[in-house]
Specification:
The protein is mostly beta strands. It contains two helices and 28 strands. The protein is globular, with a radius of gyration of 20 Å. It starts with a helix and ends with a strand.
């Protein structure tokens, strides 16, 4: 959906240019390319070793320690958990250090935002953006709205240990996944709904156990990944109707991580055997057909899967891997409908646990 809107805007600009240059009979067109791929590495808890990596898909160049180098050797902090690009800035949520960094696209700090809790600074987890604000969940049981002009933060209470959050483009609501993550195995099973202006809680939705992250599909449906209780209650994928808040379950899909690209979702599903050895599957789910299309790659080709993301402009899928000890690897996989997937690049991310990827695109008019 985002790409369609972007293309429409570019076409409109081209047509406006053509109308103002009626004597020029040359051809016009647009191209959208991914210039930079930002990779957030969370590092290990209590180790102060989170870091930012940038990959150039045109040249295959990898720049590591980007945050430290851009800020005079300063550390990004302890257990970064999320990163989004909004406008010309990056917002990086660092849970252990209880800070959201705002940087330019070179990773240089513009602002550091700390939200006050009852006794200490709040620990940010996930972010979403819309209407000039970046919205944040804090593990102490808060949702926050960062004004992107003043960087002031407004907060409101939520249920225990919120994780994922999404801003709905059509209904202008916030959905917050309530996990009660410190209450194993009795996790929560609800999503709380907030207004984007006042941060007033306006609703509550019953979901599967342990809801975690939200994803937009091209048809404006909201997909919710629920992790279950890691035992009797399995992971589930659910759909929330943003107009009615009705919830339906997608049968046969048990995601740990998910990436959306146009009409498809790329699913990373992690399970453990009786000896707690991890087993990972990567497969493709078609939203329009409501069916699993098959395997993306095998665990033998991409071991230790940790995160998955999709670039619908270039047609690439990015899979980050981790053994929780050594630097993570990033696999770049080319995938187009009706064609087999192909691993076209693999590189060391320069830090442990690559947890989030976002993209910087160039729009060229000609």
């Amino acid at each position: 959906m985002r790409r369609n809107l972007l293309n429409a805007l570019c076409i409109m600009l081209v047509l406006m240019g053509a109308a103002s240059c009626s004597e020029d009979d040359g051809d016009y067109g647009i191209s959208i390319v991914t210039k930079d791929v930002y990779i957030l590495n969370s590092g290990m808890m209590d180790s102060n070793n989170s870091e930012l990596t940038v990959y150039n898909p045109s040249t295959d160049e990898v720049a590591t320690n980007v945050f430290s180098l851009a800020n005079g050797g300063r550390k990004l902090g302890d257990t970064a958990n999320d990163m989004i690009r909004y406008g010309s800035k990056l917002y990086i949520a660092v849970t252990g250090s209880a800070v959201v960094f705002v940087t330019d696209l070179d990773g240089k700090v513009i602002e550091e935002i700390k939200a006050k809790g009852e006794s200490a600074n709040l620990s940010p987890r996930h972010m979403t953006a819309g209407n000039g604000k970046v919205f944040v969940t804090y593990q102490e049981g808060y949702v926050g709205a960062i004004d992107t002009a003043s960087f002031n933060v407004k907060t409101a209470k939520t249920g225990p240990f919120p994780e994922g959050i999404i801003f709905t483009k059509l209904t202008k609501k916030l959905y917050v996944a309530i996990t009660d993550g410190n209450n194993y195995p009795n996790f929560a099973n609800r999503v709380e709904v907030f207004s984007t202006g006042s941060l007033e809680k306006i609703g509550e939705i019953e979901t599967a156990c342990n809801p975690q992250t939200f994803h937009y599909c091209g048809d404006e449906k909201i997909y919710l990944v629920c992790w279950g209780d890691y035992g009797a209650e399995p992971a589930r994928l659910q759909i929330i109707d943003q107009f009615t808040d009705a919830v339906t379950t997608v049968e046969g899909v048990a995601p740990t991580c998910m990436a959306v690209s146009n009409t498809r979702a790329y699913i990373l599903s992690s399970e453990y055997d009786e000896n707690w050895n991890p087993k990972v599957k990567y497969y493709i789910y078609n939203f329009m057909k409501d069916e699993i299309e098959g395997e993306l790659v095998s665990e033998e080709e991409v071991p230790d899967g940790y995160s998955i993301f999709a670039d619908d402009v270039e047609g690439y899928v990015y899979i980050g891997t981790s053994d929780y000890v050594n630097n993570g690897d990033m696999y770049v996989i080319s995938h187009y409908p009706n064609k087999p997937a192909e691993i076209i690049e693999k590189f060391d991310t320069g830090a442990i646990n690559p947890i989030k990827v976002c993209f910087n695109r160039n729009i060229n008019l000609w």
